[in-house]
Amino acid sequence: MRDEGAEREVVRRRWRWLGVAVVLPVILISIGIVARWRVGLRKDESKVEIADVSSVRLLGLGSVVGYAAPYETHAWLGIPYAAPPVGALRWRAPTPPEAWADTLDALTAGSPCVQLESRLGGVATEDPDGIAGSEDCLYLNVWAPRMDPDEMAVERARLPVMVWIHGGGNTVGHGGAAMYDGARLAGTQEVVVVSFNYRLGPFGWFSHPALRALAASPEEASGNFGTLDQIRALEWVRSNIREFGGDPDNVTIFGESAGATDVLSLLVSAPAKGLFHRAIAQSGSTRSVSRAAAENALDAPVPGRPHGSAEIVASLLERAGIVPDREAARRYAEDLPEADLADFLRGRSARELIEAFRDPDRPETIAAPMLIRDGSVLPEDDWLDAFRAGRFHPVPVILGSNRDEMKLFLSQDPRFVRRRFRFLYGIRDPRDYARKARIESDRWRDRAVRNPAAAMTASGHADVFAYRFDWDELPRFLGVDFADLLGAAHGFEIPFVFGNFTLGDPILDRILFVDETRETREALSDRMRNYWARFARRGRPGRGGSAELPEWEPWAASDDSKGRSTFLVFDSESDGGIRLVRE
Question: Is the pTM of this model over 0.85?
Answer without folding.
Answer: yes
